[in-house]
Write a structure and sequence with these properties.
Structural class: alpha/beta
Shape: globular
CATH class of the largest domain: Alpha Beta
Order of helices and strands: HHEHEHHEHEHEHEEHHHEHEHEEHEH
Number of helices: 15
CATH architecture of the largest domain: 3-Layer(aba) Sandwich
CATH superfamily of the largest domain: Type I PLP-dependent aspartate aminotransferase-like (Major domain)
Radius of gyration: 22 Å
Helix content: 25-40%
CATH topology of the largest domain: Aspartate Aminotransferase, domain 2
Largest sheet: 7 strands, mixed
Number of strands: 12
Length: 397
């Protein structure tokens, strides 16, 4: 398919003049509306396209479930940011993630981490296994455990999430990729928490990088979206395209436009969130009512060395705290915040707090004294003071 859009780049740069990632995101690759010369291309919501008199379609485009013109710009931006060969947008992060497994065949073996986004873990251990995949969940921070889990010739996909929600385990992407490839398996990485600002998994050996674009890529709590970016356009990528088309997981036009809008501020947002998170983690680590802080940017965090190697420019905006006094104190702390917002999701400009064990329910590996924190771009002192008073209220008699 010829994906030439109706609007094009204002820049025609040679390879050695390639824009830096922050510029790519801020300018949306410099694309404008060529017909009106508008700086921001308009919203494209059409679901169908007119045939030519000879019964052909312009650019072979006939229906938006196959490929939506509205997705061309944000997909091009993501392809550039991740330095991939191709990108696809989906209607949600789960739609993107599950497509990676639905592109396999019943009987195929997959390896995924024990600690990962709980909805995907639930899907892998229920629907995916009922459909016919053989799924092994391992401690992805233990490379020897990963090696033992591999079944050369049968393992078709190794999946990692790093940092892994909500304990923020760190997988060594480069080493895990070698293990996967030695077994002739594809290696996919959920890099939602790191975002392209901090980590580029394809450059470290991954074959596929996935984002819940709802989170940091959009960053404003107003878009549900997912993304896949491929290192090469191989047969597996073609099967992924078929899954999106047949399952109907393409992103809508208005959401694609909003995502492009959100990505324009990706770099300054993430940099502010990283700075806030690092400062808060260091202060929380000394708080008398906090038993433990889980944040890759702290030197005593188990995955700190690996994170420092593969996360450039900081350790992310996500952390978890374990509150002294157990579950009751944790829940009461969340009940007493004012600036932090009690809500699901992460990666947006506002700071969120959530008692994960309550949400995940029976069988969760999450400690019941744990609060997950998504650090926003507010003033760090305000965030600390609000948490401090909430912790004090939770421990008062």
């Amino acid at each position: 398919m010829n994906d030439k859009p109706s609007f094009d780049k204002t820049h025609n740069q040679s390879q050695d003049q390639r824009m830096k990632p922050a510029t790519v995101a801020a300018q949306g690759l410099g694309w404008i509306d060529e017909k009106t010369r508008a700086l921001v291309p308009g919203v494209q919501v059409s679901t169908t396209y007119i045939r030519n008199p000879d019964n052909s379609y312009v650019d072979n485009r006939n229906y938006s479930r196959t490929s939506h013109t509205a997705c061309l710009q944000p997909e091009a931006v993501l392809k550039e940011l991740e330095q991939g060969a191709a990108a696809m947008l989906f209607s949600s992060g789960m739609a993107a993630a599950t497509a990676c497994f639905l592109a396999l065949k019943p009987g195929d073996h997959v390896v995924a981490p024990k600690i990962l986004y709980f909805e995907l873990r639930k899907w892998l251990t229920s629907s995916a296994t009922e459909w016919g995949l053989n799924v092994d969940l391992v401690d992805m921070t233990d490379l020897d455990a990963l090696k033992r889990a591999m079944k050369p010739g049968k393992t078709k996909l190794v999946w990692a999430e790093t940092p892994a929600n909500p304990l923020w385990d760190i997988t060594d992407i480069a080493e895990a990729a070698k293990i996967a490839h030695e077994a002739r398996a594809h290696f996919g990485v959920d890099s939602t928490t790191a975002s392209p600002v901090l980590t580029r998994p394809l450059e470290l050996g991954a074959d596929i990088v996935m984002h819940s674009a709802t989170k940091y890529l959009n960053g404003h709590s107003d878009v549900l979206a997912g993304a896949l970016i491929a290192k090469v356009e191989d047969d597996y990528w073609e099967r992924l395209k078929t899954v999106r088309k047949q399952v109907g997981g393409v992103l809508g036009g208005f959401e694609a436009w909003l995502l492009t809008r959100g990505m324009r501020t990706l770099y300054p947002r993430v940099r502010a969130q990283v700075a806030n998170a690092q400062a808060l983690a260091e202060r929380f680590a000394k708080h008398p009512h906090i038993a433990h802080v889980l944040y890759p940017g702290l030197p005593d965090f188990p995955g700190h060395a690996v994170a420092k190697k593969q996360m450039k420019g900081g350790f992310g905006g996500m952390m978890s705290i374990r509150v002294r006094g157990g579950e009751a104190a944790a829940v009461k702390t969340a009940a007493n915040v004012h600036i932090w917002k009690r809500a699901t999701s992460l990666g947006s400009v506002e700071s969120l707090i959530e008692h994960r064990a309550s949400l995940e329910g029976a069988g969760t590996p999450v400690p019941h004294d744990l609060l997950r924190l998504s650090v926003g771009i507010e003033d760090a002192d305000d965030l600390y003071n609000d948490m401090d008073q909430a912790l004090a209220a939770a421990h008062s008699r």
